[in-house]
Amino acid sequence: MIRLLRIARREYLAYVRTPGFWLSLLLLPVGLSTIVIAPMALNHSTPVPRVAVIDFTGEQLQAAVARALAPAPGARAQAVLVADPQPAYADPADAQRRIQPYLRGQKVLPDGEPLEAAAIVHPSGDTVAVDFWSRNIGASNLEGLINRAMERQVRADRLKSLGIDPAALDQVENMALDVSDFSPKAAAGRVEITDQLPAIAGLAMGMLLWMVVLTGAGMLLNSVMEEKTSRIIEVLLSSASVPEIMGGKILGVACVTGTILLFWISIALGVAAIRSPPLAGELAHVFLDHGRWAYFALYFAGGYLMFATLYVTIGAFCETAREAQTLLGPMMIIMSVPPIFMSQSIGHPDAPLLKTLTWIPLFTPFMMAARSAADPPLWEILATAALMASVTALELWVAVPAFKAGALATGRFDIRLLFRSVSRHAGP
Amino acid sequence: MAAALDVQGVTKRYGAFTAVNDLSFELEAGKILGFLGPNGAGKTTTVRMILGLIAPTAGRVQVLGEDDPARVRNRIGFLPEERGLYRRMSPVKAMAFLASLKGLSTAEGGRRGRDLLVRYGLAEFADKPIKSLSKGMAQKVQVLSTLAHNPELVILDEPFSGLDPANQQALEDLIREIAAGGATVIFSTHVMQHAERLCDQVLLMARGKKVFDGTVEAARSAAPRTLLLEGEFAADQLSDLPGVAELTAEPMPAGGLRVSAALNRGAPAQEALREAFAKGLDIRRFELREPQLHDAFLVLTGGGAE
After folding, report:
1. Partners of B27 in the β-ladder
2. Does residue A425 sit at the B interface (CB-CB below 8 Å)?
3. What are the two backbone dihedrals, phi and then psi, of residue A115, each rounded to the nearest 5 degrees?
4. Chain A residues within an 8 Å CB radius of B106
5. What does the pLDDT read at residue A417?
6. Which end of chain B has less neighbouring CB within 10 Å, N or C?
7. What are the two backbone dihedrals, phi and then psi, of residue B78, each rounded to the nearest 5 degrees?
């Protein structure tokens, strides 16, 4: 046992001292920060665009746009309505021609800023036409904002002329049915967002396990391959038993991925606690309620052990990354299945197909984690745990002789060697 | 003295292929054994059976008095062929880790590792990553890493391969020191000169079979002494010299012949030489060559090459 722990410790320290570990550790916080901060930073670093409305309708549309662009207290304006830089146009075509130098950047506004866009509004039969000119073809948000403001104003004017109160019409248009969701599974009968948290947490845990298995697999494969290529594996085999070596490696990599996960979860909970304390409380409640933490721990440990054993054994037969890829190809195809079905578990955790997939050993830990919100009965939990344990025991029975045979072999992977080692192990 | 290693009737088969065939030998504690043979002779397979990495198909291997080598793991030091170490670890940390698997605490393993590095002139590299060391230094570290736990039996598989002459000499000195310290040493090689200089006992293998087991001197005596003669004469003029068993002739670039005359066991070279001069042959140079281990190996294996 002491050897197993020492191998695990070396494995852990070997990864912790690599730049890749620290990059992985910072990946989530940096990624989240980038998603949140980058758009804000981009917004703040860009000057507030200047827009002009050249109105030939006489319907006071500039005032409507100015009201729409007025920022909320403390907020940053999306755009500023500026005075028409070249007043007294003969017609829309004249306006279009004279505004061009501003939009091309050949002229600037009196305050020295460029004109970002101009809306030339003119009558068109019974309605109003808007020619929206912009420096930036992709400025659809700004265009939509200005157009909606003018549209509201034009509609209000038309309603008034027909003797209809625009406010009354708005009230009717904005009326909506007061819909409430109820379910016997909801805590208070009425379905709240907090009632959906267990399903979301289950899916998140299933996906997290899937990521851990993939990440851990790469680490284990590389570790065993490196030791096999350099023949250190023979020194280890002369110093410790195969279960000690395999166990040490699996435990060491589990600690590495565990450290990363713990850090990520702490960051996520910390952010949730700061931004939305009730949400953090609800999340904590989801994990602590019904012993769900133990449920997740069971499938995390069982699933990781099942896959890690498989990958360590595969690694013992590989000397190059190409050999590993060849052997892992079929595994990767199988591993692409769980995420597809896990996402369905939020709406239909008890769907017959999902329940069936639960009993395929390679999918069991992922599907059971994702289906946690359905509160599977105790017999199902015990039976799936026994299934995982049986498969892992079978893997270990095959893996111990196979690992040794693979580790001591040289040259390309030979499937016959694997079968020979296992058949010898099974023999009298 | 008690046997550190007792191998009796050991055979290892892989399907129809027999890697080691009915091998038996003993090695006294504190001695150096050279395990000799060409590639594919079964040396590495035998080493792996001694270490308990693979089980023999038949026969018995007793290591340090135990039938199960796994029970004496902590008393054995092993350096595999084409060895390597963790490239990003420092020599001290690597040695501490490997020693910790042999029953020492990591701290004690590190302390002993550092002592060894200091003693063998590697103190300034003790804390640098192994990947920054030269090949010779790294190989020295690898050999030292098998010693930090003071093993009673040290097994080195092809330890000289890839080393330059200076490092080969340093490794020879190190092996002598290990044995002088009381440990038993087994090393495999296909370079006979190392065994000739180092070994108390040599075990010659070919095609999985033992072809000789004994001292270097005994092995040499299996090969004939050779009388080398150069001059202007015909080879058949030497065929009836007393004690000569076999002649090998080759022309020399500057003219004349060079003849190697293998002597019968116990035949004195002087008589053959005296007879050659008595015949009035134009002999310009002669030399009596004692057999080398290489010659013995060729004789014992009937050619030796696999």
Report:
1. B5
2. no
3. -85, 125
4. 6
5. 60
6. N
7. -135, 130
